[in-house]
Amino acid sequence: MQEEIKNPETVEETVTTEESNKKDKKKSKKSDVEIAELKETVLAKEKEIAELNDKYLRLYAEYDNFRRRSAKEKEATYFDAKSDTVKNILPILDNMERACAFTEADKILEGMNLILKSFNENFAKMDVKEIEALGKTFDPSVHYAVMHVDDESFGESEVVEVLQKGYICGDKVIRYAMVKVAN
Fold first, then answer.
1. Is residue 139 part of a domain?
2. What is the pTM of this model?
3. Dihedral pair phi/psi, residue 51, rounded to 5°
4. SS3 172
5. Coil, strand or helix: which one is 141?
6. Residue 150 exposure: Cα atoms within 13 Å on the Cβ side
7. Contacts of residue 115, Cβ cutoff 8 Å, sequence gap at least 6
8. CA distance 145 to 174
């Protein structure tokens, strides 16, 4: 038998190639493990993203429902306030129609006084009050001065005449009192 003589360089290359193959296999196994771990991480993150997206969509739907419900409630509140106001004014309209049916002056005057009384009662129910102005010091937050008169018999900035009554509801001015102011 003949023994094959191997070239030392070839032997070294073979050994190096075998070692390299072993290292590559180890690296490949290591890479496969890393890839598997990365895939698991990606799947976990995708699941987390899906959960967060679902949470976001539910929250958005809740907010949208809340917004719609609030708009409906606002409309209903406005309608209720308007209908309550009309309901309070209807008896006054009835009294005016009755007063118009009379032909005698004193009956008409009596009817007008009843109408005025009805207005004042309804305003009291709605917490609407007349702004006191006559004889008071001018207050620009509730009075609207349209005339000025120089008269020494009145005090400084005193309201001497109410040209149109003003009304207030709670803290909100509904209509400013139109007044004449002295000095």
1. yes
2. 0.57
3. -65, -45
4. strand
5. coil
6. 0
7. 92, 95, 96, 99
8. 16
Q: What is the CATH number of the domain that holds 146?
A: 2.30.22.10
In angstroms, how far apart are the furthest CA atoms of the chain? 154
In angstroms, the CA 128 to CA 167 distance is 7
Which among 139, 48, 30 has a CA at the least distance from the CA of 166? 139
Q: Is residue 72 part of a domain?
A: no
Contact between 168 and 174 (Cβ < 8 Å): yes
For residue 143, tell me if it sits in a domain.
Answer: yes
Q: Which tokens go with 24?
A: 């590559």
3-state secondary structure of 55: helix
Domain count, the chain: 1
Query: Digits of tens for pLDDT over the chain (183 positions)?
Result: 455 555 555 555 555 666 666 666 666 777 888 999 999 999 999 999 999 999 999 999 999 999 999 999 999 999 998 898 888 888 888 888 888 888 888 888 888 888 898 888 888 988 999 999 999 999 999 999 999 999 888 988 999 999 999 999 988 999 999 999 998
Task: Give the 3-state secondary structure of residue 155.
Answer: coil
